[in-house]
Protein backbone atom coordinates (compact mmCIF):
# COMPACT_ATOMS: atom_id res chain seq x y z
CA UNK A 1 0.00 0.00 0.00
CA UNK A 2 1.52 3.32 -1.07
CA UNK A 3 1.69 6.23 1.35
CA UNK A 4 -0.65 8.23 -0.85
CA UNK A 5 -3.39 5.60 -0.53
CA UNK A 6 -3.23 5.38 3.28
CA UNK A 7 -6.17 7.15 4.91
CA UNK A 8 -6.63 8.21 8.52
CA UNK A 9 -9.75 8.73 10.62
CA UNK A 10 -10.76 9.08 14.26
CA UNK A 11 -12.35 6.02 15.84
CA UNK A 12 -13.90 5.74 19.30
CA UNK A 13 -13.16 2.49 21.11
CA UNK A 14 -15.17 1.15 24.03
CA UNK A 15 -12.94 -1.53 25.53
CA UNK A 16 -13.96 -4.26 27.97
CA UNK A 17 -11.83 -4.35 31.12
CA UNK A 18 -11.84 -6.90 33.91
CA UNK A 19 -9.35 -8.48 36.27
CA UNK A 20 -10.76 -11.55 38.03
CA UNK A 21 -8.26 -11.11 40.88
CA UNK A 22 -9.23 -7.52 41.63
CA UNK A 23 -12.57 -6.52 40.08
CA UNK A 24 -16.02 -7.46 41.31
CA UNK A 25 -17.65 -6.48 38.02
CA UNK A 26 -16.32 -5.73 34.54
CA UNK A 27 -16.27 -2.19 33.19
CA UNK A 28 -15.45 -0.38 29.95
CA UNK A 29 -12.84 2.24 29.15
CA UNK A 30 -13.05 4.64 26.23
CA UNK A 31 -10.22 5.55 23.88
CA UNK A 32 -10.25 7.80 20.84
CA UNK A 33 -7.47 7.26 18.33
CA UNK A 34 -6.45 8.20 14.83
CA UNK A 35 -6.58 4.96 12.88
CA UNK A 36 -4.99 4.37 9.50
CA UNK A 37 -6.35 2.14 6.76
CA UNK A 38 -3.26 -0.10 6.92
CA UNK A 39 -3.84 -1.10 10.56
CA UNK A 40 -5.54 -4.26 11.78
CA UNK A 41 -7.44 -4.68 15.04
CA UNK A 42 -4.36 -6.17 16.71
CA UNK A 43 -2.52 -2.90 16.08
CA UNK A 44 -5.19 -1.14 18.11
CA UNK A 45 -4.81 -3.59 20.98
CA UNK A 46 -1.06 -3.01 20.89
CA UNK A 47 -1.50 0.78 20.90
CA UNK A 48 -3.86 0.63 23.88
CA UNK A 49 -1.30 -1.38 25.81
CA UNK A 50 1.80 0.53 24.69
CA UNK A 51 0.42 4.07 24.68
CA UNK A 52 -2.45 4.11 27.19
CA UNK A 53 -2.44 1.31 29.77
CA UNK A 54 0.35 -1.21 30.18
CA UNK A 55 -1.90 -3.47 32.25
CA UNK A 56 -4.25 -4.10 29.31
CA UNK A 57 -4.08 -7.83 28.55
CA UNK A 58 -4.78 -9.94 25.48
CA UNK A 59 -3.38 -12.96 23.67
CA UNK A 60 -1.33 -12.73 20.48
CA UNK A 61 1.36 -14.75 18.80
CA UNK A 62 1.76 -15.37 15.07
CA UNK A 63 0.13 -12.24 13.60
CA UNK A 64 -0.58 -14.24 10.45
CA UNK A 65 -3.98 -15.81 11.15
CA UNK A 66 -2.45 -19.19 11.96
CA UNK A 67 -2.39 -19.67 15.73
CA UNK A 68 -5.85 -18.34 16.64
CA UNK A 69 -4.61 -16.78 19.88
CA UNK A 70 -5.91 -13.25 19.23
CA UNK A 71 -9.59 -14.08 18.63
CA UNK A 72 -11.85 -11.41 20.17
CA UNK A 73 -15.19 -9.74 19.42
CA UNK A 74 -15.67 -6.37 17.75
CA UNK A 75 -19.20 -5.02 18.11
CA UNK A 76 -20.32 -8.53 18.99
CA UNK A 77 -18.73 -10.16 15.94
CA UNK A 78 -16.05 -12.79 16.53
CA UNK A 79 -12.85 -12.11 14.62
CA UNK A 80 -9.10 -12.64 14.61
CA UNK A 81 -7.54 -9.35 15.67
CA UNK A 82 -4.49 -9.93 13.48
CA UNK A 83 -6.54 -10.60 10.36
CA UNK A 84 -9.36 -8.05 10.41
CA UNK A 85 -8.44 -4.65 9.01
CA UNK A 86 -9.64 -1.53 10.77
CA UNK A 87 -10.97 -0.12 7.51
CA UNK A 88 -13.25 -3.16 7.23
CA UNK A 89 -14.44 -2.78 10.81
CA UNK A 90 -15.23 0.90 10.30
CA UNK A 91 -17.01 0.08 7.06
CA UNK A 92 -19.15 -2.52 8.86
CA UNK A 93 -19.87 -0.71 12.10
CA UNK A 94 -18.94 2.95 11.77
CA UNK A 95 -16.54 4.91 13.95
CA UNK A 96 -17.77 3.64 17.33
CA UNK A 97 -16.36 0.19 18.06
CA UNK A 98 -16.74 -2.02 21.13
CA UNK A 99 -13.90 -4.46 21.77
CA UNK A 100 -14.64 -7.44 24.01
CA UNK A 101 -13.32 -10.94 24.70
CA UNK A 102 -14.94 -13.89 22.94
CA UNK A 103 -17.05 -14.55 26.02
CA UNK A 104 -17.40 -11.85 28.68
CA UNK A 105 -18.69 -14.35 31.23
CA UNK A 106 -15.46 -16.35 30.98
CA UNK A 107 -13.13 -13.33 31.14
CA UNK A 108 -10.03 -13.72 33.29
CA UNK A 109 -8.13 -10.56 32.38
CA UNK A 110 -9.48 -8.13 29.79
CA UNK A 111 -9.44 -9.98 26.42
CA UNK A 112 -8.13 -13.20 27.95
CA UNK A 113 -10.76 -15.82 28.73
CA UNK A 114 -10.82 -19.25 30.32
CA UNK A 115 -11.31 -21.60 27.35
CA UNK A 116 -11.57 -24.75 29.46
CA UNK A 117 -15.09 -25.48 28.17
CA UNK A 118 -13.87 -25.19 24.58
CA UNK A 119 -11.00 -27.62 25.07
CA UNK A 120 -13.11 -30.06 27.09
CA UNK A 121 -15.70 -30.28 24.33
CA UNK A 122 -13.00 -30.52 21.69
CA UNK A 123 -11.43 -33.45 23.54
CA UNK A 124 -14.82 -35.13 24.01
CA UNK A 125 -15.20 -35.88 20.28
CA UNK A 126 -11.95 -37.89 20.08
CA UNK A 127 -10.16 -35.37 17.82
CA UNK A 128 -7.44 -37.72 16.65
CA UNK A 129 -7.00 -40.71 14.38
CA UNK A 130 -8.01 -44.05 15.85
CA UNK A 131 -6.48 -46.84 13.80
CA UNK A 132 -4.72 -50.17 14.18
CA UNK A 133 -1.30 -49.73 12.64
CA UNK A 134 1.85 -51.76 12.76
CA UNK A 135 4.48 -50.45 15.12
CA UNK A 136 7.01 -50.77 12.33
CA UNK A 137 5.05 -50.55 9.05
CA UNK A 138 6.77 -51.67 5.88
CA UNK A 139 5.29 -48.80 3.86
CA UNK A 140 3.27 -45.63 4.16
CA UNK A 141 -0.48 -45.73 4.65
CA UNK A 142 -1.34 -43.72 1.56
CA UNK A 143 -4.50 -41.67 1.15
CA UNK A 144 -5.69 -40.92 -2.37
CA UNK A 145 -6.33 -37.31 -3.45
CA UNK A 146 -10.04 -38.14 -3.71
CA UNK A 147 -10.18 -39.43 -0.13
CA UNK A 148 -8.17 -36.45 1.09
CA UNK A 149 -10.71 -34.10 -0.50
CA UNK A 150 -13.42 -35.71 1.63
CA UNK A 151 -11.90 -33.98 4.65
CA UNK A 152 -13.31 -30.77 3.14
CA UNK A 153 -10.53 -28.65 4.68
CA UNK A 154 -11.72 -29.47 8.21
CA UNK A 155 -8.07 -30.05 9.10
CA UNK A 156 -7.37 -26.34 8.58
CA UNK A 157 -9.08 -25.44 11.88
CA UNK A 158 -6.75 -23.49 14.18
CA UNK A 159 -8.91 -23.91 17.33
CA UNK A 160 -9.26 -20.16 17.79
CA UNK A 161 -12.72 -20.58 19.35
CA UNK A 162 -14.34 -17.83 17.27
CA UNK A 163 -17.13 -20.08 16.02
CA UNK A 164 -17.59 -21.74 19.41
CA UNK A 165 -18.24 -18.51 21.28
CA UNK A 166 -20.31 -17.06 18.43
CA UNK A 167 -22.67 -20.05 18.55
CA UNK A 168 -26.02 -19.17 20.19
CA UNK A 169 -26.59 -22.80 21.21
CA UNK A 170 -23.29 -22.93 23.11
CA UNK A 171 -24.44 -19.81 24.93
CA UNK A 172 -27.63 -21.41 26.27
CA UNK A 173 -26.78 -25.13 26.31
CA UNK A 174 -23.70 -26.06 28.31
CA UNK A 175 -23.84 -29.65 26.99
CA UNK A 176 -23.63 -28.70 23.31
CA UNK A 177 -20.24 -29.58 21.83
CA UNK A 178 -20.14 -26.61 19.48
CA UNK A 179 -19.16 -26.10 15.84
CA UNK A 180 -15.38 -26.37 16.28
CA UNK A 181 -15.72 -29.74 18.00
CA UNK A 182 -18.05 -30.97 15.28
CA UNK A 183 -15.61 -29.86 12.58
CA UNK A 184 -12.90 -31.86 14.35
CA UNK A 185 -15.22 -34.87 14.66
CA UNK A 186 -15.98 -34.72 10.95
CA UNK A 187 -12.31 -34.40 10.04
CA UNK A 188 -11.58 -37.82 11.55
CA UNK A 189 -14.88 -39.50 10.68
CA UNK A 190 -14.17 -38.65 7.05
CA UNK A 191 -10.65 -40.07 7.22
CA UNK A 192 -10.66 -43.54 5.62
CA UNK A 193 -7.89 -44.66 7.99
CA UNK A 194 -10.00 -44.02 11.09
CA UNK A 195 -11.92 -46.87 12.71
CA UNK A 196 -13.24 -45.26 15.88
CA UNK A 197 -16.58 -46.86 16.68
CA UNK A 198 -18.01 -44.33 19.13
CA UNK A 199 -17.28 -40.82 17.84
CA UNK A 200 -20.20 -40.59 15.42
CA UNK A 201 -22.68 -41.92 17.98
CA UNK A 202 -21.30 -39.47 20.52
CA UNK A 203 -21.92 -36.43 18.33
CA UNK A 204 -25.44 -37.66 17.52
CA UNK A 205 -26.65 -37.67 21.10
CA UNK A 206 -29.40 -35.23 21.99
CA UNK A 207 -28.50 -31.94 23.71
CA UNK A 208 -24.76 -32.33 23.09
CA UNK A 209 -24.82 -33.41 19.46
CA UNK A 210 -25.26 -32.08 15.94
CA UNK A 211 -29.05 -32.26 16.01
CA UNK A 212 -29.24 -29.31 18.39
CA UNK A 213 -27.59 -27.02 15.82
CA UNK A 214 -30.09 -24.31 14.82
CA UNK A 215 -28.52 -23.65 11.39
CA UNK A 216 -27.97 -19.94 12.05
CA UNK A 217 -24.71 -20.03 10.03
CA UNK A 218 -23.00 -17.77 12.58
CA UNK A 219 -20.07 -20.20 12.75
CA UNK A 220 -19.56 -20.05 8.99
CA UNK A 221 -19.77 -16.26 9.08
CA UNK A 222 -17.04 -15.75 11.68
CA UNK A 223 -14.59 -18.56 10.83
CA UNK A 224 -11.29 -16.86 9.91
CA UNK A 225 -10.14 -19.90 7.92
CA UNK A 226 -13.37 -20.28 5.92
CA UNK A 227 -13.81 -23.86 7.12
CA UNK A 228 -17.61 -23.53 7.24
CA UNK A 229 -18.40 -25.72 10.28
CA UNK A 230 -22.10 -25.84 9.37
CA UNK A 231 -21.21 -27.85 6.26
CA UNK A 232 -19.38 -30.37 8.44
CA UNK A 233 -22.39 -30.60 10.76
CA UNK A 234 -24.62 -31.35 7.77
CA UNK A 235 -22.25 -34.08 6.63
CA UNK A 236 -22.29 -35.59 10.12
CA UNK A 237 -26.09 -35.70 9.82
CA UNK A 238 -25.74 -37.62 6.58
CA UNK A 239 -23.12 -39.96 8.05
CA UNK A 240 -25.43 -40.75 10.95
CA UNK A 241 -28.17 -41.96 8.61
CA UNK A 242 -25.77 -43.70 6.25
CA UNK A 243 -24.04 -45.64 9.03
CA UNK A 244 -27.24 -46.37 10.91
CA UNK A 245 -26.41 -44.52 14.11
CA UNK A 246 -29.12 -41.84 13.82
CA UNK A 247 -31.51 -42.33 16.71
CA UNK A 248 -35.28 -42.06 16.47
CA UNK A 249 -35.90 -38.72 18.13
CA UNK A 250 -37.58 -35.40 17.38
CA UNK A 251 -34.54 -34.02 15.58
CA UNK A 252 -34.01 -36.95 13.22
CA UNK A 253 -37.74 -37.29 12.56
CA UNK A 254 -37.80 -33.59 11.71
CA UNK A 255 -35.12 -34.16 9.05
CA UNK A 256 -36.97 -37.17 7.63
CA UNK A 257 -40.35 -35.42 7.77
CA UNK A 258 -38.97 -32.36 6.01
CA UNK A 259 -37.73 -34.50 3.13
CA UNK A 260 -40.96 -36.48 2.87
CA UNK A 261 -43.03 -33.28 2.81
CA UNK A 262 -41.01 -31.76 -0.02
CA UNK A 263 -41.12 -35.01 -2.00
CA UNK A 264 -44.88 -35.32 -1.55
CA UNK A 265 -46.02 -31.73 -2.04
CA UNK A 266 -43.09 -29.78 -3.45
CA UNK A 267 -43.67 -27.33 -0.59
CA UNK A 268 -43.32 -27.67 3.15
CA UNK A 269 -46.36 -28.87 5.08
CA UNK A 270 -45.53 -27.17 8.39
CA UNK A 271 -48.41 -28.69 10.32
CA UNK A 272 -47.64 -32.16 9.03
CA UNK A 273 -43.96 -31.69 9.83
CA UNK A 274 -44.72 -30.95 13.49
CA UNK A 275 -46.99 -33.99 13.69
CA UNK A 276 -44.37 -36.23 12.06
CA UNK A 277 -41.57 -34.90 14.27
CA UNK A 278 -43.34 -34.88 17.62
CA UNK A 279 -45.42 -38.05 17.30
CA UNK A 280 -47.66 -38.64 20.36
CA UNK A 281 -46.09 -35.63 22.06
CA UNK A 282 -48.03 -33.45 19.62
CA UNK A 283 -50.80 -33.19 22.23
CA UNK A 284 -48.80 -30.57 24.12
CA UNK A 285 -49.09 -28.28 21.09
CA UNK A 286 -52.88 -28.58 20.71
CA UNK A 287 -53.73 -25.20 22.36
CA UNK A 288 -51.31 -23.38 20.06
CA UNK A 289 -52.45 -25.44 17.06
CA UNK A 290 -56.08 -24.45 17.64
CA UNK A 291 -55.15 -20.77 17.74
CA UNK A 292 -53.13 -21.14 14.55
CA UNK A 293 -55.99 -22.98 12.84
CA UNK A 294 -58.46 -20.23 13.72
CA UNK A 295 -56.10 -17.69 12.20
CA UNK A 296 -55.66 -19.75 9.04
CA UNK A 297 -52.04 -20.65 9.80
CA UNK A 298 -52.56 -24.41 9.54
CA UNK A 299 -53.63 -26.11 6.32
CA UNK A 300 -55.53 -29.36 6.75
CA UNK A 301 -53.94 -32.39 5.02
CA UNK A 302 -56.74 -32.73 2.45
CA UNK A 303 -56.32 -29.07 1.47
CA UNK A 304 -52.52 -29.13 1.24
CA UNK A 305 -51.57 -27.75 -2.20
CA UNK A 306 -48.94 -29.29 -4.43
CA UNK A 307 -46.33 -27.33 -6.30
CA UNK A 308 -46.90 -26.82 -10.01
CA UNK A 309 -43.34 -28.03 -10.51
CA UNK A 310 -43.62 -31.11 -8.30
CA UNK A 311 -42.04 -33.43 -10.87
CA UNK A 312 -38.98 -31.22 -11.19
CA UNK A 313 -38.68 -30.84 -7.43
CA UNK A 314 -38.86 -34.60 -6.93
CA UNK A 315 -36.10 -35.07 -9.50
CA UNK A 316 -33.95 -32.50 -7.69
CA UNK A 317 -34.53 -34.21 -4.35
CA UNK A 318 -33.63 -37.58 -5.82
CA UNK A 319 -30.49 -36.32 -7.54
CA UNK A 320 -29.25 -34.38 -4.50
CA UNK A 321 -29.95 -37.03 -1.86
CA UNK A 322 -26.74 -38.64 -0.66
CA UNK A 323 -28.27 -41.03 1.87
CA UNK A 324 -31.50 -42.92 2.38
CA UNK A 325 -33.49 -42.10 5.50
TrEMBL record:
Pathway: Carbohydrate metabolism; tricarboxylic acid cycle; fumarate from succinate (bacterial route): step 1/1
Co-factor binding comment: Binds 1 [4Fe-4S] cluster. Binds 1 [2Fe-2S] cluster.
Annotated GO biological process: respiratory electron transport chain; tricarboxylic acid cycle
4Fe-4S ferredoxin-type domain ranges (all copies): 147-175, 198-233
Record GO terms (molecular function): 2 iron, 2 sulfur cluster binding; 3 iron, 4 sulfur cluster binding; 4 iron, 4 sulfur cluster binding; electron transfer activity; metal ion binding; succinate dehydrogenase (quinone) activity
Enzyme Commission no: 1.3.5.1
Cofactor: [4Fe-4S] cluster; [2Fe-2S] cluster; [3Fe-4S] cluster
Name of the protein: Fumarate reductase iron-sulfur subunit
Phylogenetic lineage: Bacteria, Pseudomonadati, Campylobacterota, Epsilonproteobacteria, Campylobacterales
Gene name as annotated: sdhB
